Amino acid sequence: MSYDLLEEQWIPVRTASGARKFIAPWQIVDAADPPIDIDTGRPDFDCAGIQFLIGLLQTAWTPPTEDLWRKFHDLPPTQEQLRQLLQPLRGKFDLLGEGPRFMQDQSLAGIDLGAGKAASIKPLPGEKRKKSASLSLKPVAGLLIDGPGESTLNGNKDHFVKRFGNVCVSRPGAAWLLLALQTSSPSGGVGHRTSLRGGGPLTTWILGKNLWSTAWRNVLDTETWNHVPGGLPDGLEADSMPWLGPVRVSTDEGSQTQPAHCARLHHYWGMPRRLWLADLLTEGECAVLPGQSGPFVSSVNTANYGFDYKGAYQHPLTPYRLDGPGAEPAPIKGNRSALSYDQWPALILGVASDGGRSKTPALVVRRWRQLDGVPAAPVAVAGYDMDNMKPLAWCHAQMPVLSHAKDREEGMRAGAIALVGVAEYVAGQFGLAARGSAVREGDQRFKTFFQKDEAARLRDRFWSATEPGFYEVLGQLGDAIEAGHEVATDSEQVKLRKWWCSDLHSHAMRLFDEASQLLGNWEAGDVRRIAEARKWLFWNTKPDSDRMLEKVGLKTSDPDKKSKGKSAKANS
Questions:
Q1: Is residue 456, in this structure, part of any structural domain at all?
Q2: DSSP per-residue letters across 57-104
Q3: What pTM does this model have?
Q4: Could you list the residue range(s) of the whole structural domain that residue 419 is in?
Q5: 58 within domain boundaries
Q6: Taking a C-beta distance cutoff of 8 angstroms, is the pair 503, 466 a contact?
Q7: Are 203 and 318 in contact (CB under 8 A)?
Q8: pLDDT tens string 534-546
């Protein structure tokens, strides 16, 4: 039973008119009622979906020149033109056919297992293994990244995230389960591999005014695409789309899959998990996309020791960091407390470091900043915050890409780092003051609670409250730099940086007063402790203090003064 993901209407979208409907990939250029965004009802599916569309367009046609890329950016193709562009890929994205299946391992086809049983998989001809891969039949709901795992189910611990029970999913639902898992696969036990970017990678992409614009803005022309690592030429074969050939089994040392073993397109079509959809039912109700018609998938054959991705991959949609000279790029992961504006310099401009950790934005973000004459556009940032196999939260944010001349970039980076640096300092002082006001001496129980839970909540409140002011002053800083005020001591920059110090100070004091009302015990001695903590916070974040001016880049630190202070403290 064929189900071609290039022709079937399996992608739920929200259109310009506000309607919600299902479309095929080539219908994203519908001019009558343009699709604005993917709308599955799950943010992790939506994120995987936009990556699918970007990868599909990049696979179908990498524009040879920037001029041709701009032509499609300014004047989208018609639906029929896009359908013809995707025509060479027909038959290679079949979800349930007799031949190769989208993101599934052909070697698991036709194996009949009863639920709960397992079997060993025979090696391929000429293949030697020290370890033996095993196969089992599992409920299809087990493909959900945030679903309860086997250990949780066996221990009956699925209190907050409930098990689905004996459920099934429609064909569109199965496609979304496969796509989301293979794109961001976390570790899943012995031999169950993580995605090409590790578990829970952070994904960033340029947003457009509609779904076509968003997808196309992240397609790279040939010159830029050549910066993506890959040892084999791109094509419409297994080197690019691994489900078209045998899985590179990773049972032994040295069986990892390096960039040299792949085409560049493999970055979009990585397949770490060995899966094969099984047990098609004629009746049921889709647990992922309610209202979809059958047939339905109820279970999936799974096996371990699939593609084991190691090496210097650099996915075009992911920011990376370098942990010192000679280190391989490491993808930046999702973090529920790390999508505030303090990450803006790293995710948008990149942060260089001498010998330490440097961070570089995703290739699509770097390319967009280098283009001339393109409109201002926000960047979407999303990903799971994972604790090994356990998802802690789904993180999502939008950050602006400010337009500025290429020769002004260093000034912009230095200014942004200074603004973030003083904010981090004030956030730290606010946290210490709040803790000092709330925790009595010797109250270890509350101290532990504060460190684990309350401190994170207060940090989130601080970054959220000060975010509008940051982007406001950042935009004005960009204008000042474009006007020639690149030096921090120029009058325009001094005014902006001092305003930012004042804004941070006022927010810190207000949030402290709110927090002390909620956390204070208000018994004898507590009022004095709170008053002392407030006074300490006031003086340590006073806008015109030497420390604040130093942190915001308006005053050079005095090393002699610091050393004297340390000596005095040591002798006291």
A1: yes
A2: HHHH---SSHHHHHHHHHSPPPHHHHHHHHGGGTTSSBSS-SS--TT-
A3: 0.89
A4: 405-572
A5: no
A6: yes
A7: yes
A8: 999 999 999 999 9
